[in-house]
Design brief:
heterodimer; A: alpha/beta; Rossmann fold; six-stranded mixed sheet; 11 helices; B: about 450 residues; 16 strands
Chain lengths: ~300, ~450
């Protein structure tokens, strides 16, 4: 036997090859762990309590080792499921007409195509282009465009409210406002073709933004001066998080009107637009407004009656 | 220069180096969107066979965006380190891949060669590598940078604390900040994406983050990720600023869409070096991500991996303290699902490190991409194994302002614990001093934000 083989055999003996494998260790006494739950007003930590006056972020949730408590995991999974459901919802055909809006449609033909082909979501299909040419008011100051974007739920919910407030803010400033319209399967840059076609000074697309965890009700707005096909992101100014937890529609509409006014004054938008000294509303100054509480989504069994009480 | 190959007797001919690079790419929805990907798996391998035989000199001579129309291509060419380039220029891409994988090729050597590599070379090599190849070479690279703390040392895994808030409520930002610090997060930077892009709010947030850092003697950096022109105005207002941020794209046209140019970032860098509140020498922070050029129609028919590498060619000019790819943020039209996002994260980390950057990764997904929570958790571990410089961190990984799912405060100590990694030495010492950590284990004050002075 070679020297190495001998060494390996000796090593095996040293590791206890002659003895039986050890039995499993004795069973432990497993206590109930301390109660760690998704924070609710009755049971959350003092830190979570204080933080909730300023943020919807899930803080003060504690930990098990370095991981989450079971209740936190369930809350998280429920919020994730809500977000995925919001993404999957489509704007129903006929919804725009039913709400008095000129219906427009991008070149996208299915929801999956909408996700994978932004180029098609940036251009109108032929019937929409002719409808726009025939029925929309031209040569105006502001063209607001409501659109589904990534959340039809937000478009159908606070989208209508935002459109109404924004239109009134613009009219109150003496600007001419274009025909109210709503675009389906729309991406941000669709405002370029629409704005160019109706010959407006500022195009403002108001569209559902990517749903967040547990939510699908957020809107974003993108404004561009002298819209035309070929504009890029640097030519636009945007506002996101238009929802109850961020900027509510009424407040957002005022701020968007201030932005549009700056564009009309300075005859530009995007990076060259000077925002210095603009009154963009109190959210720009970090003023205090209580956030909406993050609701607990999951209840089960006896836990349910206790928590709701 | 040969641009043809054959597989089982079937001949394949490619139109250009750019075409070979594009068709060599693993499947990405963004390359399909651009209409430049291989039509099937066999053509992809045929393209790789051509790529493997091209020399690094061929790649230098053929950037995917021509010199005549792109300032990034010209800048990379004119600033390339000729000595470093000479050391490897004779190798084919296939041979360069093998040299990288040789155990005798170690971190310091890779660091020496980095300034001689063009983005196209890094991207080409990436396309010949499997995920485990990318991990193997990524883990060998050593890129150490210094600000108030020392980032990128072996055995370390750092994190950006990202306490974003939908209305920039500073108290809300600080609640998330204190919570994150109590989990050992935030040694790379405490960085806020502001909801409002104005100099005043940028200055206000920085001032308050500075108070937390100074009052608690935390060896880290702060940053507000507004547009670089806004940060320059904020500096004029006289606020503290440890790192200056900007998003980058891989072509001149793409950068124009971001409202930046080489001249502008040169100016910003000069101003930051003069005015920063960080001890230096590294003062800049850049973010990138596959697909950004295509999203502004600025890709010039090139693939998104090569364009991503070109961002690193831009970034390295400014010796940044942090660079990270926001890999899953852009959406499914560029990276469709879990496997594509995972692959892209490992590619970007490898290419950035190979080019000498302190590369971090925002392992994340948006809710309209087909990636599961389990897949993104796996990616965080893979990145840790690959020696990724830093990950992000926020409460339950939920960015309540940008609406996407990233790394959580809990994930950072979890990955560190699994891999035996620690934060920067300076931050590690602070965590142990205040009782948040006890060596590699959670300490008595772990997860207790009350440990921070208000």
């Amino acid at each position: 036997m070679s020297f190495t083989r001998t060494l390996i055999d000796n090593l095996r003996v040293k590791l206890g090859a002659m003895d039986p494998l050890p039995p499993p260790p004795p069973l432990p006494v497993v206590p109930y762990p301390p109660s760690r739950v998704f924070p609710t007003p009755r049971r959350r930590s003092a830190y979570a309590e204080a933080a909730a006056k300023h943020t919807t972020a899930l803080v003060g949730i504690g930990h098990v080792g370095t991981r989450y408590a079971t209740n936190v995991v369930l809350q998280f999974q429920a919020e994730l499921a809500v977000a995925h459901a919001a993404v999957g919802t489509e704007l129903p055909e006929g919804w725009a007409e039913a709400n008095g809006l000129l219906p427009l449609h991008s070149q996208v033909t299915s929801h999956r195509q909408f996700l994978l082909r932004p180029d098609l979501g940036r251009r109108l299909d032929a019937p929409s282009l002719s409808r726009l040419g025939e029925r929309a008011r031209r040569g105006i100051d502001i063209q607001p465009i409501l659109a589904d974007g990534l959340s039809a739920i937000a478009c159908m919910g606070s989208g209508l409210t935002l459109l109404g407030h924004f239109t009134r803010e613009c009219e109150a400033r003496g600007w001419s406002v274009g025909t109210p319209m709503c675009a389906r399967f729309a991406r941000v840059w669709l405002e370029d073709e629409i704005g160019e076609t109706v010959n407006c000074k500022v195009a403002a697309i108001l569209l559902g933004e990517r749903p967040g965890l547990g939510t699908g009700d957020g809107l974003s707005a993108y404004l561009v001066y002298n819209p035309k096909i070929g504009r890029s992101d640097g030519d636009r100014n945007m506002m996101s998080n238009i929802h109850a937890r961020g900027a509510p529609p009424e407040q957002a509409a005022r701020r968007l009107a201030v932005l549009a006014g700056a564009m009309l004054d300075q005859k530009t938008s995007g990076v060259p637009l000077n925002l210095h000294g603009l009154d963009l509303g109190h959210e720009a100054g970090g003023g205090y407004r209580a956030p909406e509480p993050r609701v607990r989504l999951v209840y089960s069994g006896s836990d349910s009656s206790k928590e709701k009480a | 220069m040969n641009l043809s190959s054959s597989i089982r007797g079937v001949g394949y001919r490619f139109g250009s180096v750019k075409d070979v690079l594009a068709k060599s790419n693993p499947p990405k929805s963004g390359d399909d969107l651009a209409g430049i990907s291989a039509r099937d798996a066999v053509e992809r391998v045929a393209a790789r066979a051509v790529l493997a035989e091209l020399t690094l000199a061929d790649l230098r001579a053929n950037p995917v965006v021509p010199f005549e129309i792109d300032e990034l291509s010209r800048m990379v060419e004119s600033t390339l380190n000729e000595d470093a380039y000479s050391a490897v220029k004779h190798l084919s891409v296939g041979q360069f891949r093998e040299w990288l994988l040789e155990p005798t090729t170690r971190g310091p050597t890779l660091r020496a060669v980095a300034p001689g590599l063009t983005p196209e070379m890094a991207a080409a090599t990436c396309k010949l590598m499997s995920n485990m190849d990318l991990l193997t070479v990524g883990a060998k690279c050593e890129v150490v940078v210094r600000a108030n703390s020392t980032l990128g040392l072996p055995g370390r895994l750092s994190s950006r604390l990202q306490p974003n808030h939908p209305t920039d409520d500073v108290e809300g930002i600080l609640y998330s900040t204190r919570e994150g610090l109590s989990y050992g997060c935030g040694d790379a930077v405490i960085g806020v994406n502001p909801a409002t892009d104005t100099p005043e709010s940028t200055a206000q947030i920085l001032t308050r983050l500075h108070e937390v850092r100074v009052k608690n003697n935390i060896p880290t950096q702060h940053c507000v990720l507004s547009h670089v022109t806004v940060q320059m105005k904020a500096l004029d207002l006289g606020c503290p600023m440890d790192l200056m941020f900007q998003s980058m794209s891989g072509s001149e046209k793409g950068n124009r869409a971001f409202g930046i140019s080489i001249a502008l970032i040169d100016e910003a860098y000069a101003k930051m070096k003069a005015k920063t509140s960080n001890r230096g020498p590294n003062v800049m922070y850049f973010e990138t991500g596959q697909g950004s050029a295509l999203s502004s129609d600025a890709h010039h028919g090139a693939d998104q991996v090569t364009l991503e590498a070109r961002c690193y060619g831009f970034a390295r000019r400014y010796k940044p303290f942090l660079v990270n790819t926001v890999v899953g943020f852009i959406g499914p039209e560029y990276l469709e699902d879990g496997p594509q996002i995972t692959r892209a994260g490992l590619e970007d980390h490898f290419m950035g490190k190979l080019m000498g950057l302190p590369m971090g990764c925002d392992a994340c997904f948006t809710y309209h991409a087909r990636m599961t929570q389990d897949e993104v958790e796996s990616l965080k571990v893979l990145l840790g194994v690959a020696g990724c410089t830093y990950l992000m961190s926020m409460p339950v990984g939920d960015d309540i302002m940008l609406n996407y799912q990233s790394t959580s405060f809990h994930d950072i100590p979890s990955v560190r614990g699994l891999l035996g990694k620690r934060p920067t030495p300076e931050f590690d010492a602070w965590l142990n001093e205040v009782g948040i950590m006890d060596g590699l284990k959670p300490g008595e004050r772990f997860g207790d934000p009350g440990v921070l002075k208000r």
